[in-house]
Amino acid sequence: MNTSTDRIEKQILLNAPRSRVWRALSNAEEFGKWFGVNLTGKQFVAGQSVQGHITYPGYEHLVMDVLVERVEPEHHLSWRWHPAAIDVSVDYTPEPTTLVEFDLSEVESGTLLRVVESGFDQLPLARRTEAFRMNDGGWTEQMGNIERYVTER
Question: pLDDT for 4-15, tens place per residue?
Fold first, then answer.
């Protein structure tokens, strides 16, 4: 496994209490506001799938579908999904998924949020590079989105 192509790692120091950041991550409605998706349900629950239409301009025809792996309140949230699944004519379900992990740490100046998405090396070769590129840029954008969301509200 080549860690430079298999995993994306991002982190951001948020000037907000861990409880506030956790609510923005774990409450489906709040998550959707900063992430750009209209999710069904109220909370992320381990073992359950959550779906919703993307609200990001140009991607409204897509549905985000994640299977929640682990929920440790105010510390960890993880799910599996099919990254960069943007061609509605393709059935991505036979493909391996990547694992997205959010970890929160309380620090003196607020909350350190770390996001890791791993498993890209298991994706079909034809999609691997583009999925990694799209999600690497996407996570960079999402770090700014959650920062704005938790500090403006």
Answer: 889 999 999 999
